Amino acid sequence: MQPKGKTGKADQALAYIQQLYRIESDIKEKTSSEKLTVRQQQSKPIIDKLKSWLDKSIAHSPPESAIGKALFYLHEQWPRLIRYLDSGIIR
Fold this sequence. Notes:
- The protein has 91 residues and is mainly α.
- It has a domain at 43-91.
- It has helices at residues 9-26, 32-59, 66-82.
- The longest helix is centred in the middle third of the chain and has 28 residues, at 32-59.
């Protein structure tokens, strides 16, 4: 358990994911072309930061720990996660 007032690895990942969800919420009524443009301009830099964070964090987390398992899962799912960046149709 994280001590009160401290942030951990999961908090950083959640912050990135919340930013991505916020962007998707903001563009839900836009055209496919507009969504693609926003995803490339706004979401991709966040995804790049998340990937950098993931690569750094996975190297320093025991694989059997809860965070290690979550990081490994994210790493394995990465190709599926980033597919939406190249499309305005994917929801």
